[in-house]
Write a structure and sequence with these properties.
Chain A: InterPro entries: MetI-like, MetI-like_sf. The structure holds two protein chains of two kinds. By secondary structure, chain A is an all-alpha fold. Chain A contains 14 helices and no strands. Chain B has two domains: about 55 residues; about 230 residues, Orthogonal Bundle (MetI-like fold). Classes of the chains: A mainly alpha, B mainly alpha. Chains A and B meet through helix 1, helix 4, helix 5, helix 6 and helix 10 of A and helix 2, helix 6, helix 7, helix 8 and helix 10 of B.
Chain lengths: ~290, ~300
């Protein structure tokens, strides 16, 4: 019995050690980024670990905030996130509500029309041509319209609405409420939890998106923050064709502090927000996995 | 029929913008796939360009460039599955063994972080962390008297970096589903095991793991479809000329052929090949799922 308790204690030790190890692989690189971003050149170049700042120099941040593209990038990202998330919520609900009605004529067909797009797509080049042909290039619409509705999210919302008790709508109807009133005063408020989940996912996706901005927006002033960051940290090195490797070849200059400052400025909003919203994201993944 | 549609006219009015959206942004590009069978000219459009049949697909497999790219894609994805699939299961099992709620919460919150960051941010972090001059791994190697490794510029290391950073990004968030499954296990079995004096490692192995086996099987079937779909965001932001021979995959190849070099038809053929392969993978996975359990995705 005593031996068993010993093995349990050893087991515990291994568990805590492994989990702490995993957490450190995330925390230490973050601390290094923070440290380099506030360090003067001689500290950046000094041999050794850079997890905790030993001297402070905020010239990296000053350089970043003097870049006009950082500000326009922030603004463009904010605009696309708010506009895109709004469009996504409205469109997803507009699709999900009718399809949740069991008596809807040809319901299976219309559902299939949406679901089919989950399994096959035209691919990068035809989508690019489409955006080009319908004149969305260089506008914010090229960032918010092509991915506005996810068929998968639409299905989840549809299933959620379909599972709401029907008696609520019926009793409202008996009380003389018209369809629009029922929709606005009963269905929408009851769907709020699921719509909030959809909104959170859409907002994070928009905040992190950059490829569409690279494809469709040529004007640097209209590009999103992530892409500006990419230019600073990846393309910004001596030779664009060697991206990451260039950093390894060149002796680090103080531009390193500036790069890390740009990194911090980009990820800070998400880092501050996600710990408080994580339970909604957790709920979201579970909704997605339990398919009816 | 018309009368029934009329009765539901307001519902269809709601549905209309959504149907229009899918028609325009999803079905129109599917029609656009025709350009893979043409020598597409932008000015002539799909209706005016000349049809060349399977020319681009023949080029795909007889040419020098696509086959290595396909090979890279399959190898990288296979390794990502091999390590990325069990990792969240192990993590969930470990987190489940933690008795202190505060520790549990902190580890989980930290482990979610990379999931919420873009690959541009993450590649900045990874490049810095693997830097031969400042990266902690290389500093540690040098402290041990070894030479620093150029992880991101070394063809022997680049795939390892891709696989490990992908696992690192996703492991925390992917563990959620398994933790939920573990939370659903009835406590009776553990109590019975306790009476029998069974240790914690055995409990994990004989009770927890078998109890979440159905979830594991379903997740395996669902993710097995991802063998052909590579992670453009990750690879595009980490790849460089030194390692493109081992790191160039279908999506980065499609981008460089189609957008950078403007070989529209050829790139569309590459994309179509990938999408068909992905569809076959998903359908066969679903077929297997239907054979072995009630949980299907279709």
């Amino acid at each position: 019995m005593k031996q068993r308790r010993m093995s349990d204690r050893l087991f515990s030790l291994v568990v805590y050690a492994l989990l702490t190890g995993l957490a450190l692989t995330i925390v230490l690189p973050m601390m290094q980024v923070l440290t380099i971003s506030v360090s003067p050149l001689n500290v950046v170049n000094r041999y050794g670990f850079h997890f905790i700042p030993t001297a402070f120099d905020f010239s990296g941040y000053r350089q970043v905030f003097h870049k006009e593209t950082i500000w326009t990038g922030y603004q463009n990202t904010l605009v696309r996130t708010i506009l895109g998330t709004g469009i996504t919520i409205v469109m997803t609900f507009l699709g999900a509500y009718p399809l949740s009605k069991r008596q809807l004529p040809n319901r299976a067909f219309w559902t299939g029309f949406v679901v089919l797009t989950m399994f096959f797509s035209g691919g990068l080049i035809p989508s690019y041509m489409l955006v080009k042909n319908i004149g969305l290039m260089n506008t914010v619409w090229s960032l918010v319209l092509p991915g506005a509705v996810s068929a998968f999210m639409l299905l989840i919302v549809r299933n959620f609405i379909a599972a709401l008790p029907e008696s609520l709508e019926e009793s409202a109807k008996i009380d003389g409420a018209n369809d629009l009133y029922i929709l606005w005063k009963i269905v929408v408020p009851l769907s709020m939890p699921i719509l909030a989940t959809v909104a959170l996912y859409a907002a994070v996706d928009h905040w992190n998106a950059w490829f569409d901005s690279m494809l469709y927006i040529q004007n640097e002033k209209k590009q999103v923050l992530q892409l500006i960051l990419r230019k600073i940290i990846i393309d910004g090195t001596a030779d664009p064709s060697t991206t990451g490797a260039a950093d390894s070849m060149n002796a680090p200059t103080n531009s390193q502090a500036m790069k890390m400052a740009a990194l911090v400025v980009t990820m800070l909003p998400i880092m501050c927000v996600y710990p408080f919203l994580q339970k909604y994201f957790v709920k979201g993944t579970l909704l997605g996995s339990v398919k009816g | 029929m018309i009368r029934r549609y009329y009765a539901y006219r307001y519902f269809f009015l709601m549905l209309l913008p959504v149907v229009a959206y899918f028609a325009l942004f999803h079905y129109a590009p599917i029609y656009g796939v025709l350009m893979a069978f043409q020598d597409f000219r932008v000015l002539k459009g799909i209706s005016g360009s000349e049809f060349v049949g399977m020319k681009h697909f023949r080029e795909l497999f007889s040419g020098l460039y696509f086959v290595p790219v396909l090979k890279n894609t399959l190898i990288i994805n296979a390794y990502k599955l091999l390590f990325g699939f069990p990792a969240p299961i192990v993590l969930a099992l470990l987190i489940n063994e933690v008795m202190r709620p505060a520790f549990k919460r902190i580890v989980q919150t930290i482990s979610y972080l990379p999931h919420f960051l873009s690959w541009i941010v993450l590649s900045g972090i990874v490049i810095e962390a693997l830097s031969p001059s400042r990266g902690p791994i290389n500093i540690a190697l040098m402290e041990l008297g070894m030479k620093p490794v150029f992880f991101l510029a070394d063809t022997d290391w680049f795939r390892t970096v891709l696989v490990s950073t992908a696992v690192w990004k996703n492991v925390g968030f992917s563990a959620i589903i398994y933790l939920a499954a573990i939370a659903g296990i009835s406590g009776d079995m553990y109590e019975a095991a306790e009476v029998d004096g069974i240790g914690r490692l055995q409990k994990m192995y004989y009770i927890t793991l078998p109890s979440i086996a159905p979830v594991i099987v379903i997740m395996l079937i669902l993710t097995s479809g991802s063998i052909i779909n590579d992670d453009f965001d990750q690879i595009f932001n980490l790849i460089n000329a030194n390692v493109s021979s081992v790191g160039d995959v279908i999506s980065t190849y499609t981008y460089s052929e189609g957008i950078a070099k403007m070989n529209y038809s050829y790139a569309a053929a590459v994309g179509l090949f990938k999408n068909v392969a992905a569809l076959v993978a998903v359908l066969s996975a679903n077929f297997i799922a239907r054979r072995f359990s009630d949980n299907t995705i279709l």
